Structures are given as structure tokens and as C-alpha cells.
Here is the input.
Amino acid sequence: MNIPRIDLPRVVILGAGFAGLQMARRLNPRHYQIVLIDQNNFHTFQPLIYQVASAGLEPDSVAYPIRKTLHGKRNTFFRMATVSCVDFERRVVETTIGDLEYDKLVIATGASNNFFGNTAVETNALPMKSLTDALDLRSKILGNFEQALNTRDLNRREELMNFVIVGGGATGVELAGALAELKNKILPKDFPDLDLRQMRIDLIEAGPRLLGNMAENSSTMAFDYLRELGVHVWLETFVETYENKQVITKDGGNFKTDTLIWAAGVKGNLPDGIDASKIGRGNRVVVDPFCQLESHPEVYVIGDSGMIVSEVYPAGLPMLASVAMQQGKYLAKSFNKVAVGKSIEPFTYVDKGTMATIGRNKAVAEISKLKLQGILAWAVWMLVHLMLLVGFRNRVVVLINWAWNYVNYNNGLRLIVRPYVNHLADRREPELMA
Amino acid sequence: MNIPRIDLPRVVILGAGFAGLQMARRLNPRHYQIVLIDQNNFHTFQPLIYQVASAGLEPDSVAYPIRKTLHGKRNTFFRMATVSCVDFERRVVETTIGDLEYDKLVIATGASNNFFGNTAVETNALPMKSLTDALDLRSKILGNFEQALNTRDLNRREELMNFVIVGGGATGVELAGALAELKNKILPKDFPDLDLRQMRIDLIEAGPRLLGNMAENSSTMAFDYLRELGVHVWLETFVETYENKQVITKDGGNFKTDTLIWAAGVKGNLPDGIDASKIGRGNRVVVDPFCQLESHPEVYVIGDSGMIVSEVYPAGLPMLASVAMQQGKYLAKSFNKVAVGKSIEPFTYVDKGTMATIGRNKAVAEISKLKLQGILAWAVWMLVHLMLLVGFRNRVVVLINWAWNYVNYNNGLRLIVRPYVNHLADRREPELMA
Here is the structure.
């Protein structure tokens, strides 16, 4: 890889998500040469991609060019590449654009969908993890209705108008709520010649309640909100397979659908080369409280792909944006301290709260001991997400979209820009002529 | 196709561009059943797609969902489909989702790129006509620089950093100017480890001047503006072929480039089935001054795909958005009049002026006899385009983007969202390791 060697230790950071980007931005370039690698040229604000999928926000508002975040920063290099493997002995990262030596390596490769080995689901379900997933999903959802108009096969129309979301965490709950609002407020106006009451949204969760990482009270509230919006919630229901447009659950349930959206879990997204004995639950690399790999102290793992086990968190810190951001900041600070001979402390996570929005005026939020619901939680949710977005322009545009939607439920972002039209062509019905 | 037969004449409109959309929105549904067909579910504001390509605007701002424009309109149907053929004898339109009978047919299928039979260019050049073209081009342009960083082959780097635009009309001139501003103001900050002086933009025009449909004065001004911005303009230069990353011109010129952008002409985009004798210059259907096909008086052609020849316009009315919009409005009005037994007038085109923007404070505009240049023309250009955009939200977001760019040249929309990363993977250079 074309990176000049200079007289400073080279820190290679894999991944420009919440952890990697914080790390790269805060690391002091007087002490280190910094190389940031990501497969995309943009950072994605994942908590809002479900709104891209449900046609509430445009993709450009929830993403930010990585190069722009590094403007004017000396000794700092970004490369768009996919990392295949790390050779820990030679201290070399292998990527699609060549190899790169490191002095210190920071693995911040995040997480990807966990299908728990279910290949039938993996093959046929739609993921909701990246910006391109969200764009594909938006085109698919809107395309389904265009297609439903063109069929007189009622079974087929049902498949097209049923949406099944698996996973009752924040992503699943928020997407189910957003789809329900599309159904109730926007689609009937867009498709006057389609009976939108036939649209059905099922949310399936294997555990006993929604939003498992929040308080019981919040779970119940989210359940009630979703029911109010018309979403069918199934708790303690385990998806066994998805074949021939049918989702089959363990208790014999059967959901007919063309669109299964998988939000049921994530796993660490790791490059090859990591010693299997270091990989713990959820495919995360076990590191010490300094985010350091014991066997290779020059290697650090932060964010979703790393796992610090403590007494408070025996299963590791949760896979959340806030943990990732705090670890990125922490590690940059540690590196900067070490460079000037200062001592460092282990990482401590400060839980700033959790929240989820279900719909207009409908949200739940827990901020330390404070538990909010309804319009207040919703306002807090919006404020926090606006503040966390990277870039002033993005904040303004997102705010306009939200305000617009609040007033008239209709911002007009319902473009099918992915090549979905080909699917329509498959369903030609020349014999049916009006 | 699933459209109910009702007791009103059925008007089928092919294409939801400037002409078709105006027609569909203004036609009176008390007198007609209206069916609008387009291959996309959105209307594209074509005059601004070059700014999507040059990362100045997001795609969602220059497009608008067709269904939303028809909200609440009775007896009106939209279908997303590609029209393959019209059977004028049976009065049937054949599409990817089935056949459809019509009583009156309005062909408003617009125009597509004209490569004038040059297959070498057609295969290898990038078009700039649709929203997806613009998105592909944005990813390609930004991807080229990511790729240029990874090569030490100076010849290859040159190919990647040279951009050749063919066609000195408004699209070519505006895109060349936008690319030059990217080069001068934005890319050097994004790519500090690349020598952006090596980036080169060539604009090739076969005719003797730029903006051929404007006054001599405006052409000269546009030429000077582009030269100021560092664009190399080649007049009276005819592209012969584009092969092996080389553009060859008739006079023996040779331009090395990975990116040839074709903006050198358009031709009518017609469904099959039209009598060849009715098709005139530029693949446009010759119609009478009522936009009517002589041989089939129930068929009308408006916008770029139709051609009305008059004394003032012996080669047909120009292929412009303003002509298309005026014809859409005119034809809806005519239909509405005919339905109540009123008499109709032939179409007359009111030339409201032409304009092109080259860069910040650099534009030319001609409004009847008034000729503007510089910052004033630029302000008028922005105002007119903002007013013509469909949707208030789009106007606000575009205005914010422009204001933002004006202040700091940097709105941060430089996302590579098309699958360009695969191209990067092809260029792996494992032997080069720093």
C-alpha cells in the first residue's frame, strides 16, 4: 500500500465506525502516523438507517465522508479497502489494495448480522445493518406495492403486502413502528387503488419481551405502542426457517411473506488470522480492560468486535454505539498519554442511557434512573440523535425532514433507486388485460 | 394490467417527465380516466442531476415520487412499468406488466443519449441522463481518486485523474465547471496525499462554440469562465472513438482517460410500433401543431420525443424542459376543452430564456432580449431552478446545500454508494508494500 514510512510509530485502525473514527480523529499526529482503513468512503450513523429504509430520511443525511472528518489532520491517511486478514507475527494487514505494516493495530471492524447458522434465513432474508442494506430495503418495500397492484393472485398479493421483522431489539422495534406509520399515514395516499388494510406487519422476538436491554416497564410500553399502531408482536417465538416465502416458527407458526427483515442479532465482524481461543461469545475478541489483546500487546480491539468482561458485565460490554464511541475516545487518549510517558487507566464504561422511538410522540428512554415515555421521551430521542449526527448540514436536513413529517406525514423520499424494476418484469401477466 | 374500465375515455400517458407529469396533473378527471406509466416511481428534475454527479446535491432532492404528485386525484392511476411497444391498430400499449387499452394515447417518453451509432463510445462512455447515471458517475469519480492513491503506475494514475466530457451544451458545460470546482476547492482537502494539480478536465465540442443555442456573447463568456477554472476546452473537435482508455479525435488528438462522460446529444426515446415514415431527425415523431399524429389522431406526442416543425423552428422545437412543460400544460388544457365541446388552438411555444451556470458567481442567462452574466446571471439561475423544483422540502434542502457550499465549498455528500469497491479490488498490488 502506498503509505510513506516516517519516523513515527504507525497506528493502523481497521474500520471507521463509531469506535474507529473517534480513535482516528483524536489520536495526536505529532506522536503517531495514523492509517484508517474502511470498506466504504463514508461513516454511517447506524441508529438512523432504519429511517432510510422506511423512506423517512435520505441516505446522505445519515452518512458522512470519512475524508472530510480528517481534513487538515497531519500524518493521517485514509484508504478505502476491505481487510481480508491480519498476520500478527509479521505485523502486517492484508487488504484488497495490498499489504500494510503496523506498529500498533486497532481492530474496530464492528459487527454484522448474526443468522446463528441458519442458512435458509441467511439466503432469503434482508439484512438491516449497512446503508446499502437500508437503500435496498427501501426499494424492496416500495417495489412490493407496485408489484401488488399488478397481480390478481390474492396469495401473491398477501406475500407482497406482509412484512415480517425478526428481532425485538431497538432496530426491530423502530423499523416496525416506522413501517406501521407508512401503512397508516402515507401508503393509503400513495396507493389509492390498493386496500392498505391488507398490509400486515409482524414483529417476532425469541425472548420474553421487547427491548431486552431496557427496564420491564419500557418493554411493556413499546409493546403497547406497537399494538396501537397495528403491529402484530410475537414474543417467545423462535424462527426456524424461511423458505418458499414462508417463515416457519418452532411452535408451528407460519407467516406468509415476500419480505423477511432480519434484526435478530449481530456478531463481531473479524478479519481472519485471530487466534480462535481469543474469540468469545458473539464472535468478539476478548481483550483486557485496556482494550489490549493479551497475546499481542500491540493489538487493540474496540467497539462491537471487542469484548471486555467485568463483574458488572459478565457477558461483555453491550454492543452499542455509546460503548464504541467511548472506547475510541479512551484509546486515543491512552495512546496520546503513552507517547509522552504518562500512565494510563483501564477503560470504564459510563452508561448514558438507552432509548427507542416507536412512532410520532411514542418513545421510551432511560437516562440513569430517569425513565421517560411518550412525547417527552420522543423529544429527548430526537435531540440526542440530532446532536450525535456528524456534520452541521446533516443535522439541519434531518431536522427539516422530521419537522416536515411531523406536520404532514409526508416528506416525499419514496424513490426506488435500486434496480428493483427487474423484479417487476418477472411478474408479467399478459393474459390479464383490462 | 389491473386498471378498471369506467365510463370515461381512457387517456394513457407514457412517461412522467416534464411533459407527461404536467399533462397527468392538469387533465380533468371528471372527463377522463388517466393512466400514467413510467419506468421509475419518481420524476427527475434533469437540469440538476449534474450536481448529483459532482456531489453537490443528494439524489432525493432532485427527484420526486410520482405517486405523491397525484395524491387525491380521482380516476388517476400510476403504474411503474417499461413500455415495449404500441399496437396502434388495436390501440393497446404493451408493457412489462401486461397490456393496456387506450382511447387516447400521449407519448411523452423523452430522450436518451445519442451516440450517433458509435458503438465503441456507447460501450465505454458514461452517460449523464438519468438519476441513476448521475449516482453511478458520482461513485466513479470519487472512486477514481481512491484508486489513484493505490497505484504507482504513473500512466494508470493519469488515466484515473483525467476526465473527458464530450458535448459543449448546457449539461457538458455545467458538469465541466462543477468538476473544476471539485478539483480546485474540495478534492485537495479530501486527498492531501495526492497531487490534485495532476487532475485534468477536457471538454470536447464538435461545433464552433459552446452553448450553441445561446448568443455568441454567452458562448464566449462560458468559454472564458471554464478557462479561468482550469478546464481545457476543445472546439471543432470531433470524437472518433474511445478504446483502451484513449479518446481519439478526428484531427488525431489523443486523450488518455478512464472516464469519458457523454453529453454530446440526445435522441427521442420511442416505443416500438411507430411508423418509420413518421420519425424525423433525432428520432423524434413528427406531429402537427396540435401535437397530434396525423395518421392516428387519437395519438399525441409531446416533449423531447415529439417534433413540431414550424417556420421559426424548421428543425423542430428545441429539446428543452421548458418546451416539454408547456406542451404538457397545453395538451391537458386542449383535452379538457374538447371534453366540454370547446374549440382548441394549436400549440405555441413561448421562449422564456436559456441559462447555464459554470461555477460560483459564474453563469450566463438570456431572458428574451436581456443578456446577463456573472453573479447576477448566477443568482437568476439559482432562483429559477429553485422555483421549478417539485416539492417545498426539496427546495429548502437544495437551498441549504447551495448556501452551505457557497460559504465553505464543502457540503459533504461525497458518498460512494454504488458498488464501485469491486473495481478497487481488481487493482490489487500486493507487491507494493510500504
Observations:
- Residues 10-39+81-113+266-339 of chain A form a domain with the FAD/NAD(P)-binding domain fold (CATH 3.50.50.60).
